[in-house]
Amino acid sequence: MKRKPWPLIVLAILHVLSPIGNILANTFLAQVSLSTYLQVLFGPQELIRTSIFLLVPVICGVLIYICKKWSYYLYLVLMLVPFIYSYYSWKKQAMNTPNLGLYLILFYIVNLAIVGYFIIPQVRKVYFDPSLRWWETKPRYTAEFEADVTWMDKKEKAEIKNISEGGIFIKTPMKINTHGRITVSFKFAEKLFDFTGEVVYINKNSDPFGYGISFSLNDEEKIELKEVIQVLSEKGTLVFSKIPTPEDTFVYWIKKVLTTRKGIVPEVKN
Q1: Cβ proximity of 255 and 14 under 8 Å
Q2: What is the Cβ-side half-sphere exposure of residue 147, based on CA atoms within 13 angstroms?
């Protein structure tokens, strides 16, 4: 998969569209026409309530889609706003609308179920660990040239396999772990480059081992790296596996959800 997970996209869309569902549900519960309800809803006296129940879900949907650490926390905070407002509004009118409490409970059970989805560790990690957000990966280009790697005062030859603005993938006989800084030095277009980073991925199934390195560059080094990327881009060495595939489609995801329980893996047709 090369794009954001469909569950996050669907949840974001449901949040954005939820005000429409709320309006239709409240129209039914109030037993009035839609036009009458909308006139009351957008009246001056209902400005606060309208803002909360129409804007907050939309903002929450956007926060889900953004998928950042700060958007996760802000989402949880905003989810409390309509609940608190509804609870105190119901307390004031409990005598006149005794059944409203039941509807509120049912409504927020659904919301809590959605929040519970975000509490699942596998989902929450995507918000807290940028390395897991595969859709943010920069375009990667095949490189195929030699380099020198320096790690823990050790130096060894390496072969660069591909490179992007975010990092590089190399193969080297040197056994490296994820501790300590690593420097990759190579000559490209008659110019010497030295980029520093840290190992974030190790492929032990290849010979020699493969290492994914995330760069830590200053502004000048970023400019230099972009020069390399520009040349590789002009040569047409883009790794096409980074382009979305049929497995990224909504239809494939739906088939996967429906067939997983049966132990069937949906086929992908190119």
Answers
A1: no
A2: 29
- Does 264 or 62 have the greater pLDDT score? 62
Helix axis angle, 6-30 relative to 121-128, nearest 10°?
110
pLDDT band, very low/low/confident/very high, at 63 (cuts 50, 70, 90): very high
Amino acid at 98: P
Domain 140-238 has CATH 3.40.50.880: no
pTM here?
0.59
> Would you state the structure tokens that stand for residue 188, as one six-digit string?
């490209």
Alpha-carbon gap, residue 259 to 252, rounded angstroms: 10
How much of the chain, in percent, has pLDDT values that exceed 70?
79
Give me the count of residues in the chain: 270
Per the structure block, which two tokens stand in for 238? 């883009």
Summarize pLDDT for 12-37 with one digit per residue, the tens. Answer: 898 898 888 878 877 887 788 888 88
Cα separation of 75 and 72, whole Å? 5
The confidence score (pLDDT) of residue 131 equals 64
Structure-block tokens of residue 194 = 């030295």
Q: What's the pLDDT score for residue 128?
A: 81
Calpha distance 29→26 (Å, rounded): 5
Helices vs. strands in the chain: H and E counts, helices first: 8, 6
Helix axes of 121-128 and 69-93: crossing angle, nearest 10 degrees = 120
Higher pLDDT, 113 or 55: 55
Integer Cα distance of 76 and 67 in angstroms: 13
d(CA 134, CA 1): 8
Residue 208: burial class (beta carbons within 10 Å; 0-12, 13-18, 19+):
middle
Find how far residue 94's CA is from the centre of its chain: 41
